[in-house]
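Exercise 7. Given the encoded structure of a 186-residue chain, write a plausible sequence.
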């Protein structure tokens, strides 16, 4: 069965060129190399590297994380000058997940996330945000978190998210450091 003209056009529009694919691969490799040098067990995408670079963790307790975040001009919406909604979603995802496993829970995967944007105009380039993530609870392998982003100076709410994660993925043991062995002919 042949594709309709509309479907064929949509496929053409969504097709990724070899040049674009190469650019994304290069950025992902650079981000992975940067993080691998500091922590070999992490492998973020290039976007996570850009979006999360300005986070400063202020406080961590079991089930609670408080961070500050400086809004970079490079991650603002070009038409509004406000922090891009996709960056807010990435922050809710990453910080909500971190809160979910901060009380010794096993690794999990995201199953649901909802984000409300009451006032993105409170997050412009150069602004400092306060981000608070709390675990709402754990039920078996399911955990729910609440993430609140506010302007640190005015206290106005920028965004609010709920993040649900599920799983009982065991943490991979750290690889032992390489050792050298000496053989003796005695």
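Solution.
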């Amino acid at each position: 069965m042949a594709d309709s003209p509309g479907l064929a056009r949509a496929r053409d529009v969504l097709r990724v060129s070899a040049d674009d694919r190469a650019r994304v691969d290069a950025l992902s490799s650079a981000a992975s190399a940067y993080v691998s040098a500091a922590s070999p067990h992490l492998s973020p995408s290039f976007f996570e590297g850009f979006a999360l670079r300005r986070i400063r963790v202020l406080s961590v307790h079991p089930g609670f994380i408080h961070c500050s975040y400086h809004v970079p001009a490079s991650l603002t919406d070009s038409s509004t000058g406000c922090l891009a909604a996709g960056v807010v979603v990435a922050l809710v995802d990453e910080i909500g997940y971190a809160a979910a496993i901060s009380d010794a829970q096993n690794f999990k995967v995201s199953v649901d996330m909802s984000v409300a944007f009451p006032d993105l105009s409170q997050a412009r380039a150069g602004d400092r945000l306060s981000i608070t993530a709390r675990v709402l609870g754990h039920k078996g392998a399911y955990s729910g978190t609440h993430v609140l982003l506010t302007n640190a100076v005015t206290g106005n709410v920028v965004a609010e998210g709920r993040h649900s994660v599920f799983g009982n993925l065991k943490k991979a043991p750290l690889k032992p450091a390489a050792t050298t062995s000496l053989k003796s002919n005695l």
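Remark. The longest helix spans residues 18-38. Students should compare their own answers with the one above.
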